[in-house]
Amino acid sequence: MNDTAARALLPAGLPDILPPEAQHEASAVARLMEGFASHGYEPVKPPLIEFEESLLSGSGAGLARSSFRLMDPASGRMLALRPDMTPQISRIASTRMADVPRPLRLSYAGEVLRVQASQLRPERQFAQAGIELIGSDNAEADAEIIRLAHEGLERLGISGVSVDLTLPTLVPAVADGLGLDEEALARLRDALDHKDPARLQGLSGQKLFESLLRATGPADKALAALEALDLPPRAREEIARLKAVAVAVRRDAPSMTLTVDAVESRGFEYHCGVAFTLFASGQSFELGRGGRYLAGGEGAVGATLFMDTVLKCAPMKAAQPRLYLPLGTAWETGQGFRDQGFSTLAGLELAADAKKDAIRLNCTHWLNQGRAVSVRE
Hints:
The chain is an alpha+beta fold. It has helices at 3-8, 21-38, 52-55, 86-94, 139-155, 170-178, 182-193, 206-214, 219-227, 233-252, 307-313, 331-339, 354-360; strands spanning 42-43, 49-51, 69-71, 78-81, 104-113, 125-134, 161-166, 216-218, 257-261, 275-280, 288-295, 298-306, 322-325, 343-346, 365-368, 371-374. The protein is elongated.
């Protein structure tokens, strides 16, 4: 391997993002943040790295295995690089913004870094953008977050966006009502995670859990099936909450594709209520996920969009026309064209043929006698 190739080699899952993809990402994040702001969500910017005991406590406790760690030479304490931004927003809300009136609406965007990639996400560093609504236990708050996440993806031009609702608190509520012990609960969770009714054989409540596995699909049909089951009181309360969220979403977004898989819990370990995943038609990977959790003891609900997968579905905006300005062109002249929507590239040396120089530098136009002329002419 020569020296140039060696310097270009990067660790697995940590890619360079080059033009035009980098501009595509920057533009998409900007449009998402603009949309969130239009609904009253104020941006915050937490640091990339924090003290380990702060970042990986509370809602961040489940992220310990995903986090890179290093020693801080200034304090002598262990630091962790964030694998997810939601725990940081929770920390900000419960500390620096503890006295701000509730409900608190915050938005964020930034890079995260994870120790291991997954089959569906080979990147270990990628951008997130999201929203958090903190200080409300109302089902309307859940519905608002779902609608805004869905709207954000549509704002990027992604078609066929669907929302899959789940209820990670349902199975524990049913198991508790049936008096299942820890061993039985682990076996139950394994069967449900694999969507395998055969693994339920001989388990107390087998028929009920088989019915829960079947109660999936379009929201109206799945909710009706769930309501028809003979569930313990606490489980029925969880189903009622799920229905209330679905009804609130449907009220303002009747055309949204809404499905339910109430027993799915993988990736929702710290959620304490309704949760959801966002997909695009024809794609198996998730564009984002979110749900209800506790932020420093407060009821909260949020959504995180994964920009690496979002950008695979979002059509790239047409690039700005690029205008070559020969050496000596007045700044004001260039500004006039920038105001018209051009990006301008100033020549730094006197060119024998300005048009050829424009083509060499990938410009779409060149300045000729005060006019922007296409290099194709």
